[in-house]
Design a protein that fits this description.
heterotrimer, A alpha/beta (about 300), B mainly alpha (about 220), C mainly alpha (about 270), B: about 220 residues, mainly alpha, 8 helices, C: about 270 residues, 9 helices, about 75% helix, about 0% strand
Chain lengths: ~300, ~220, ~270
């Protein structure tokens, strides 16, 4: 089915592109709705035929995986949900994979967010991933959700020295001092790893500037593709590693499945999305080539 | 009064926050100012909501064009606001998380806010494709370099890049598209982004100093306000 | 009745009918999974509602239309209220109330900390900020804006200087020759392997020269001539590669958002994929 779907997709797209090329070469304009239809088909067909590919982790993603993997069991890992619905398809697979990996390693998980929408998303992650797949984990002992606070970098400036100045309770109203997981935690400096998942402001950059660097705490990130190139200057000295876009998520999911057989049946939205992603990229490249051929031939014709 | 006090506030707050890094006794003042900033940020959200109600309310009452859509905005706003402020349907009542599963607020988020927000940004994929066909032209050397780099990244970030150049032997493995893409990101891309980052950092430092010292006053607006 | 109005009404009727058909189909599908009647009706409605919200936004691809405008205006209203509510409960009730009033803390069921009179400063500044809505007293909001600007400037100055300037300059001083074991070893192991010595050396040279030339390009106080001009030219090329990489990633990002939405429509709504 995978191969048949791939062949059908490529034939459809190739046929369409040839038509586009002929039309462009004859000097006739291609209306925008036609381009939109091409894009829709390029993404829909691989989805319907469930075209998937295998993934291999690149060094920058492997660095994050290895960091979580080789932390001693019971280490404290904080995951910050710094995104909203507009970025969720890209970065939510990353946060789900981080949660699974950390809990499989029996690390203590601290969930928070610098975006208001992050609070809904981490509440959803607790219900969908933690309670469903790790029912043996106890809230307040193995994981805690302290939610969102307004103020962006102002929040980080406070919790880098004292959590309790800003967070008195978790999202369910339980006093932090009553939770075993928070017993020896005073500030972000007591964390063993900070994972920021997001792609806007505040995001990975602010975590490096306001937490990782001043607190000397290892920081890693999962970033939306749009902001990933901007984070590369921080790698590897200020950022342990970085998951870039849906490809980064797919690589991390593959690595997780490779090392943990219990995740063999886990949903891998990152891997599933790489099929349509691949064909869409091919489509965009073809558009650029066809557009340029038509432009230069038209210019030659006019001169 | 209208300008002197705000300038003084900016100077005091900015100076305390800078001092708090170098002078440990000032650290707690810096934290307190950050907490005050966080609380004022919430009032900024209220201001945004209030402004929304003012603009759409005016449109509604003066029956300007498309006033019907202002009804939609205001209805959505007040329904969501009431659901959130009163934690309607929240399993744990007032003490629970406002975004708790099962609450009316979370329902509105999951089934209206989420799809609308996600769809808005998904539209951009179509416009990127349209721009690729209509606008990206290799008119000169610089544009050609840009497009070649983009091609390598587009191919390298998909499994097809791996399959297309898997035949290249290990001793020339840098020419395999995925490796080339990684090298581009970690070398020339990093160099360019770092140069931009350093430039921006210098700009931010200079602008921050100007703001704290009161040289830059545009944020105060004009005196006729 | 004009043709345009008749067409609009027909389209509206079709949308309503399709909504009801979809709701019924989803409710049946959910009920087939063993869900109780009430839940299947509710879940069927939610999924249909979410799908129609998505399609209303996508209708903009054809042209601007009342369904898109409806969805857009709804999004604006809901979004503003969402941030207000979450901000109110998380920070105003969570941080302000416990420091000013035991009665209010008990009402909102949050633990009272201790009374701190200084917490009236953000309250006063916050109220002044709201006065921005008034034409007569709007100038008072400048005091709050000054606090916000001062905080941001104070925080950013140090952090940008440390993380984005000093660290970046320091990280640019990379060894220009790595793992050097002599000329013979270098040429005997000469290869274009991705993790080979030559590529690592090349990478470090590119980083060092690229940062230097990129910074030269942004220096506009001197004319870009001679050596300076050549360095600036190299800087432009490095920046073009940077922007090309950014474009590639931007395409990836936007496409994955579309894939996410279509996954919901094909999967959760139409049931065509798992």
């Amino acid at each position: 089915m995978n191969n048949l779907g791939l062949i059908i997709s490529l034939v459809l797209i190739a046929g369409g592109l040839i038509w586009l090329l002929v039309r462009s070469l004859s000097g006739r304009e291609v209306e925008r709705p036609i381009i939109f239809i091409f894009m829709g088909v390029a993404v829909s067909v691989p989805l319907l035929f469930n075209i998937t590919f295998s993934e291999k982790a690149t060094p920058i993603v492997k660095a994050v995986f290895d960091k979580v993997e080789y932390l001693p069991e019971g280490s404290r890992v904080l995951i910050s949900f710094d995104y909203g619905p507009s970025m969720a398809p890209e970065v939510q697979p990353m946060s789900d994979a981080f949660i699974r990996h950390c809990l499989a390693k029996n690390h203590k998980l601290f969930l928070m967010g610098l975006w208001a929408t992050g609070q809904s998303l981490n509440a959803d992650a607790v219900e969908r991933v933690i309670k469903r797949e790790f029912p043996e984990k106890v809230g307040g002992v193995d994981y805690v959700n302290i939610g969102y606070k307004a103020g962006s970098q102002g929040v980080l400036n406070v919790i880098i020295t004292d959590f309790r100045k800003l967070y008195a309770t978790d999202v369910d109203g339980r006093d932090l001092d009553s939770l075993p997981i928070f017993q020896d935690i005073k500030s972000l400096k007591d964390m063993d790893l900070l994972l920021s998942v997001g792609g806007g402001f505040p995001g990975v950059k602010e975590w490096v500037q306001f937490a990782g660097d001043p607190g000397n705490v290892p920081t890693a990130g999962g970033s939306a593709a749009v902001t990933t190139p901007l984070m590369y200057p921080y790698y590897p000295r200020q950022l342990v590693g970085l998951l870039g876009g849906i490809k980064g998520a797919a690589e991390y999911e593959s690595e997780l499945k490779k090392h943990y057989p219990q995740f063999d049946k886990m949903p891998t939205p990152g891997v599933a999305m790489m099929g349509p992603q691949t064909l869409a990229h091919l489509m965009v490249m073809a558009f650029i080539v066809v557009g340029n051929i038509a432009f230069f031939l038209g210019k030659k014709r006019d001169s | 009064m209208k300008r002197r006090i705000p300038l003084l506030i900016t100077f005091v707050v900015g100076s305390v926050l800078i001092l708090s890094v170098f002078f440990p006794p000032a650290e707690s003042w810096g934290e307190d100012f950050s907490i005050f900033f966080d609380i004022i940020a919430v009032f900024a959200f209220f201001l945004g909501g209030g402004n929304l109600v003012r603009i759409h309310g005016k449109k509604l009452f003066t029956r300007k064009s498309d006033w019907g859509f202002s009804v939609v905005t205001l209805a959505g706003f007040f329904v969501m606001l009431l659901a959130g402020l009163f934690k309607v349907g929240n399993p744990a009542g007032m003490a629970g998380d406002v975004t708790a599963a099962g609450s009316f607020f979370q329902m509105l988020y999951e089934w209206i806010f989420n799809p609308l927000g996600a769809s808005m940004y998904a539209l951009l994929a179509f416009y990127v494709a349209s721009a690729s066909y209509r606008a990206f032209r290799a008119k000169n050397v610089d544009a050609t370099i840009l497009l070649v780099a983009a091609f390598i990244i587009l191919l390298g970030r998909t499994p097809l890049g791996m399959y297309a150049t898997a035949w290249i032997p290990d001793s020339f493995s840098i020419l395999q598209i995925p490796n080339l893409a990684i090298w581009i990101m970690t070398s020339p891309n990093m160099a360019g982004q770092r140069a931009i980052m350093i430039g921006i950092a210098l700009g931010v430092v200079s602008m921050s100093l100007r703001l704290i010292l009161g040289v830059e006053r545009t944020y105060l607006g004009v005196d006729s306000e | 009745m004009s043709t345009a109005r008749r067409t609009s009404l027909i389209i509206l009727a079709a949308v309503i009918i399709l909504f009801l058909v979809s709701w019924f189909a989803k409710f049946s599908a959910v009920q087939n999974t063993g869900a109780p009647f009430g839940i299947s009706v509710r879940d069927g409605f939610y999924i249909t509602l979410a799908a129609f919200c998505s399609l209303a936004i996508f209708s903009f691809l054809y042209k601007d239309n009342p369904y898109y405008k409806f969805a857009e205006h709804l999004f604006v209203g809901i979004s503003a209220a969402y941030w207000m509510c979450v901000g109110f409960w998380s920070t105003f009730v969570g941080n302000f109330i416990p420091k000013v009033s035991r009665t209010l803390s008990d009402f909102f069921e949050v633990p009272f900390k201790s009374f701190d009179i200084f917490y009236f400063i953000p309250l006063i500044l916050g109220i002044l900020l709201l006065l921005r809505l008034s034409n007569k007293y709007g100038w008072l909001s400048r005091w709050s804006l000054a606090f916000i600007v001062g905080t941001t400037a104070g925080l950013n100055l140090i952090r940008y200087l440390r993380s984005d300037f000093i660290s970046q300059v320091s990280n640019t001083f990379v060894p220009l020759v790595v793992d050097w074991e002599g000329i013979d070893a270098f040429f005997s192991d000469f290869s274009l392997a991705a993790n080979g010595q030559f590529i690592m050396i090349l990478g470090n040279w590119v980083v060092f020269i690229g940062v230097f030339c990129g910074l030269v390009y942004f220096f506009f106080s001197k004319e870009h001539k001679g050596f300076f001009g050549t360095a600036s030219r190299v800087g432009v090329w490095v920046l073009m590669i940077t922007f090309g990489a950014s474009f590639g990633y931007t395409v990836m990002g936007r496409v994955s958002l579309l894939v996410g939405r279509l996954t919901f429509l094909f999967g959760d709504w139409l049931g065509l994929i798992d």
